[in-house]
Each structure stands twice: as structure tokens, then as C-alpha cells.
């Protein structure tokens, strides 16, 4: 079967999905991941909720991302009868140049290297499997899909910082992230709630990484994230909004190195830093520790504050959408955020919220509340298929998936 591989590579895990081609649209066949890279590697995959593999490895068997890619590809080749046509990659930062998915070549990959310092948790690992496949399968079509692309088109007042213009010309601007998630939700809204999709909508992507986006008729007009994925609302290990003076203080008064500050901001802050307990919202909600309660309260408070900012950017609000891990799975957090939005006329339906319905607002609510599960991988598959059809010469008929 002709197939597309979608790869989302992190520092210690690789998430992958296989999509078959049916009727000109991608259909998910396999979903899996290889996590614990370099420590306790474990490969798991399922198809239609049926387990295909659960296997652990010695730490030195899969010590890095290239080894993980080779292991995944080997398993797919040996167990699945697939003809791989293309690979779609999530790439977090596309900079000012890439406003849409692009076919990857060495020049594009080299250009994307310059954004490693702007997304140190993601960009190096996003690029690692691309480099690996350049070497092992140079004929294979690879596509980069960017988390920043959906936010291109923001107005000048939305994407500028109040610093000299020369920095903007160099690329120092507010990009916004989680664009693949927002793009999917905007697309899904047109299917399930077309009247809402055409209006003024805030989408809250609430997970370990968290941000919010203002949509006007399905287009991004403002985002809580900016130059990097540090800004906005607090996250699992990232602080969200912070006074730049705090960073100057850490560098000059505390004598911290830039590397130490970077590590603090990306790995030791957010819910983890505030609570001193965990970066996982589930752990914090189940804890009786006052520090855990403070972290949860802070998260809810900041989401409410940023909702006000985005409502102002839209000139009003018609709908508020929850998505991603916390947004989709925590009725308690949804209820607490809804309380913060009561001033906008939000009226939560507690039963619908607890029962995990899609529509969780009451009929009298002036703002519609929705839960829309995101699917970044499907979005990547759609983009990859679209570019694949434009480059039919790249198809290698009958060639099985290989490394």
C-alpha cells in the first residue's frame, strides 16, 4: 500500500504515524512512538487500537535520534507491507521565510539550522531525522511543516516588538507557535460548527506546551507566543510571560551564564518551577501541597488574562475552544477557566463538560464553549500529500519502505 510517514521527533522520543492513501485523502493506519531514547528505549505502536508492538531495548541499542529512526524504519519494513512515498516532518520554527510547508533539500535544512537557538527543545530534534533520511533515502520526498507558518499574515502591530526596526528586518518578531494544531482546529471547526468558524474564536492549546490563538474567520490574527516558544501562558517547564528585566538581573546580578538561563527557562520553570513538584498537570491536581495548588491557580489565572487580551484583539468573542492534552482531558481545568470567562457571558454546562461532550456551554451562553481534539499529524499528512502530488517524479513505484 502507498503510504506517508509522519515524524514528530523530540529530545528523547520519536512519535510517528503511517497514513495510507484512499480516495485522494490520507487515512491513519499506524500510530506509534519510540520513547526513552538513550535511557530506557521502548517502541510501541497500534493500529485501530490494536497493539502491534511493545518492545524495550538496552540503552546503548538506541542511544540517539538517528538510531531511533533506523529502528522504527526497520520494524516497519519487516512487518508492514508499505510503499513509502514521502515523509512529513513537524518543524517548530520556520523563521520569517517559510509561510507554508516546503519540500526539503539540503539548502532548506541548512537554513533551518539557524533557528536552533530559538527553539532548543525542538528544532535540533526536528532536524535530526531529516538529516538521517537525506543519507539513507536521498530519493525520498521529505516535507517540512512549520508550527510558525499558520501565523504568517499577522498585522504589523501584532508581530512587531517595540525595538529598533533593524531587528525586525533581521527576523526578531512575534511568530507564534502551535500553528499546525490551530490550523487543524480551524479546519475542523468549518466542518462541525461553520457559524462559529466564521466568527471570532479563541483556541486554547493547553498541554505541556501551551499557547492561545485568536482566529478571525479561521485565520490567525494574534497569538500568546512570540519570538520563541517561551512567551504567553505558563507551560510544563517554560514560564510564559516574564519581564525581560528578570533575565537581565539573572545575567548581571546573579552571574548566571546564558546557557544556564536558557536551561532555567526551558527546563526548570513553568508548572515545574512554580510548584517544585511536577510539570504534569495531573500530578498537580491530585496533590494537596499548597505549591501545587498555586501552580494550578496560576495556570488558570494566566489563561483568563490572555483570553482578555485576545478578545480585545478580535473586538469581541463568539467562541472559545479547548484543545490538546489538558484542554481535551481535564474537565476541572475547563470549568475553572470557564469561571474566569464569565465576564464575557460564558455559561458552562457542567454535565456536558463532565461527560466530555464537544459542546460544553449552555444555550444561554453568549460565548460558545467547545472541545475540539487536535490532530497535528493528520495536518502534516495532508500537507505532505498536497506537495507529493505536485512532484510525481519523486514517487518510486514498488519500492518498499527502507532505511
Walk me through the structure.
The longest helix is centred in the C-terminal third of the chain and has 25 residues, at 290-314. Helix 12 packs across helix 14. The chain has 16 helices and 13 strands. Mean pLDDT is 92; it is low at 395-403. The strands form two sheets. Strands 5-4-3-2-1-6-8-7 form an eight-stranded mixed β-sheet, with helices on both faces. The relative contact order is 0.13. Strand 9 and strand 10 (210-216) form a beta hairpin. The protein is an alpha/beta fold and 403 residues long.
Keywords:
403 residues; alpha/beta; eight-stranded mixed β-sheet; five-stranded mixed β-sheet; 13 strands; disordered C terminus
Amino acid at each position: 500500500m502507498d503510504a506517508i510517514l509522519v515524524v514528530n521527533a523530540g529530545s528523547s522520543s520519536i512519535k510517528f504515524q503511517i497514513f495510507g492513501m484512499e480516495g485522494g485523502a490520507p487515512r491513519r493506519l499506524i500510530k506509534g512512538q519510540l520513547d526513552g531514547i538513550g535511557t530506557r528505549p521502548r517502541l510501541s505502536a497500534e493500529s485501530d487500537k490494536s497493539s502491534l508492538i511493545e518492545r524495550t531495548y538496552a540503552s546503548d541499542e538506541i542511544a540517539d535520534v538517528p538510531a531511533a529512526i533506523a529502528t522504527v524504519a526497520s520494524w516497519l519494513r519487516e512487518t508492514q507491507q508499505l510503499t513509502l512515498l514521502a515523509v512529513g516532518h513537524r518543524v517548530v520554527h520556520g523563521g520569517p521565510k517559510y509561510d507554508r510547508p516546503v519540500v526539503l533539500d539540503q539548502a532548506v535544512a541548512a537554513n533551518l539550522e539557524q533557528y536552533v537557538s530559538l527553539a532548543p527543545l525542538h528544532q535540533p530534534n526536528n532536524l535530526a531525522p531529516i538529516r538521517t533520511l537525506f543519507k539513507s533515502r536521498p530519493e525520498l520526498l521529505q516535507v517540512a511543516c512549520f508550527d510558525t507558518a499558520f501565523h504568517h499574515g499577522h498585522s504589523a502591530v501584532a508581530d512587531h516588538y517595540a525595538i529598533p526596526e533593524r531587528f525586525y528586518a533581521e527576523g526578531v518578531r512575534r511568530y507564534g507557535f502551535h500553528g499546525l494544531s490551530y490550523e487543524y482546529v480551524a479546519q475542523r471547526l468549518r466542518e462541525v460548527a461553520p457559524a462559529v468558524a466564521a466568527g471570532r474564536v479563541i483556541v486554547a492549546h493547553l498541554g505541556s506546551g501551551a499557547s492561545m490563538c485568536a482566529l478571525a474567520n479561521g485565520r490567525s490574527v494574534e497569538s500568546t507566543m512570540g519570538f520563541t516558544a517561551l512567551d504567553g501562558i505558563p507551560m510544563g517547564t517554560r514560564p510564559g510571560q516574564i519581564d525581560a528585566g528578570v533575565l537581565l538581573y539573572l545575567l548581571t546580578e546573579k552571574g548566571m551564564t546564558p546557557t544556564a538561563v536558557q536551561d532555567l527557562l526551558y527546563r526548570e520553570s513553568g508548572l515545574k518551577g512554580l510548584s517544585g513538584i511536577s510539570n504534569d498537570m495531573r500530578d498537580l491536581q491530585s496533590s494537596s501541597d499548597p505549591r501545587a495548588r498555586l501552580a494550578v491557580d496560576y495556570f488558570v489565572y494566566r489563561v483568563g488574562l490572555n483570553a482578555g487580551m485576545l478578545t480585545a484583539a478580535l473586538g469581541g468573542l463568539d467562541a472559545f475552544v479547548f484543545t490538546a492534552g489538558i484542554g481535551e482531558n481535564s474537565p476541572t481545568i475547563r470549568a475553572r477557566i470557564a469561571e474566569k470567562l464569565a465576564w464575557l457571558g460564558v455559561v458552562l454546562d457542567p454535565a456536558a463538560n463532565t461527560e466530555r461532550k464537544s459542546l460544553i456551554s449552555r444555550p444561554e451562553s453568549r460565548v460558545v464553549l467547545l472541545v475540539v481534539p487536535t490532530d497535528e499529524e493528520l495536518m502534516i499528512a495532508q500537507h505532505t500529500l498536497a506537495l507529493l502530488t505536485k512532484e510525481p517524479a519523486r514517487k518510486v513505484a514498488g519500492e518498499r519502505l527502507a532505511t
